[in-house]
Amino acid sequence: MNILFSPRVRTVSSRVIGLILAIILALSFSKWHFQAAFIEHILWFFGWFFVGIGVMGRIWCSLYISGFKNAKLVTDGPYSLCRNPLYLFSYLGGVGIMLITETFIFPIVFTLYFLCYYHFVIRQEEAFLSEKYGTAYSDYIKTIPRFLPSFKNFKEPEFYQVSPKHFRIFLTQVVWFIWVAALVQLFDELRLHGVLPSLFSWF
After folding, report:
1. What pLDDT sits at residue 123?
2. Transmembrane residues, as ranges (predicted)?
3. DSSP 8-state symbol, 71
4. Residues 161, 36: Cα–Cα separation, whole Å
5. Which string of DSSP letters, residue by residue, matches 138-179?
C-alpha cells in the first residue's frame, strides 16, 4: 500500500488543506458580488443544493457500510449504483461548499485536486478489494461503474442490519459538511460588515 494514499494521510492532508483554504476564504470575496449579483445567487443556491445531496448521500452510504467496511463486500443500495458512492457524495458535498464561495475558481481547483488524488486512492482500494474478495469482486466490477452512477442494476433489500455505534460515528463525520458550509457563509457575512478584511478577489 502506498502510504501517500492511506486513510491516515488523507485525513491529515485534508485538515491541513482545509485550514489553509479557510484562511484564504476568510480574506477573499467574490467579484460577482459587484459585477453580476444573479450569478452569485445561482452559485450560492447550487452550493447548498450539492451540500444537501452530499450529506444525504453519505448518510445513505454509511447506513450500508456501518460495521461492515472491509468485513464484507457491500453491493446493495448506493453500492449497486457505483463502486465508490461514498467518494462520489463526498465530492458533491465538497464542490457544494466551494460553490458557496460564490466563485468558479474554488470549485474548479477542488475538482482538479479530487480527480488527481482520488484516482490513485480508488485504484489502490480496488487492488485491495480484488485481492481480498477475488471472483466476487471481479463479477461486481463487470456490472457496476467505478464512479458515475448507473441505475440499471440498482437494488436494495427490504431489511438491512446496521451497527448503531458505527452509524453514529459516521454521522459525526457527515455533519462537518454542514458546519464548514455554514463557516464559509459566516466569512462572507463578516466581510460584508467589515469585520474581516477583503484581501483577495476571485471570479
Report:
1. 92
2. 12-30, 42-66, 86-115, 169-187
3. T
4. 50
5. HHHHHHS-SSS--GGG----S-----HHHHHHHHHHHHHHHH
Is 144 within 8 Å of 82 (Cβ atoms)? yes
Q: Is 198 helix (H, G, I), strand (E, B) or coil?
A: coil
Give 58's pLDDT tier (boundaries 50, 70, 90): very high
- At 65, the amino acid letter reads I
Place of cell 452510504: 61
Where do the domains of the chain lie, and which CATH numbers do they carry? 37-187 (1.20.120)
DSSP at 28:
E
Residue with cell 480508488: 122
For residue 69, pLDDT beyond 80: no
**Percent of residues in the chain assigned helix, strand, coil, to nearest 5:** 70, 5, 25
**β-bridge partners, 30:** 202
Residue 15's identity, in one-letter code, is R
